[in-house]
Amino acid sequence: MRRSLPTVALIGATLAAWELAVVLSGVPGYIFPTPAGVAGSLHSDAGLLARASEVTLEEVVLGYLLALAVGIAIAVIVASSVHVRRAALPLLVISQTIPMVLLAPILAILLGYGLEPKLLIVAIVCFFPVVVNAVDGFDAADPELVRMMRTLNAGGVAIFRRVIFPGALPSIFAGARIAATYAAIGAVFGEWAGSSAGLGFVILQAEPALQTARIFAAVIVLSAIALALYGLVSLAERLFIPWTRQPTHH
Description:
By secondary structure, this protein is mainly α. It has a single domain, classed as MetI-like (MetI-like fold, Orthogonal Bundle). The chain contains ten helices and no strands. Helix 3 packs across helix 6, helix 6 (about 115-140) packs antiparallel against helix 8 and helix 7 crosses helix 8. The chain is globular. It starts with a helix and ends in a 10-residue tail after the last helix.
């Protein structure tokens, strides 16, 4: 509880400064709302935001899981050969330089306006940190353990399963945590490209109507989804690799 007090105090001070600045400046609420106005939208638009959140949450979770599966598989292939790494890594980097605002409409045209293009966009946004961190983790395998397994006549699959992959789990989870913060952004890009539901669609509809408080409310819900996903990944890390969490001694 005490650890959260500085965070709570900082949030409270930020909200108070925000409210005061908007009130004193006289900026209309439709241009920049106060925290009270955003809170009012969270209450009055609760039903709309809840329905939109269900759509976006499905896109975020499924797209994120797809990114983990594809990212780890690519990392295994890349780490298996120097030649593959030299050929693949530049392509992976290039894939992250393509603006999503351009790629999302293309995927929507090719795949339609259903769930599929949104999942693919979320996966594209998320998979890169998973791949990079997993490759780093595979490269950091303890050579002494690998040599010991070879002296016991262990094959490549057994060495990977018993030494390399378990040793890479901290790096994999580090990449998964980073990717978790990107997933909601990918879902919004997908919904902007073509959708009739979701938080991104709510934001898109609210902009021309100057419903700025609703936009802020949708962003807050998106942030909550991202934080929840990040928290779940951190919890999974503690459950699967508890030895990486050393107790702090004072």
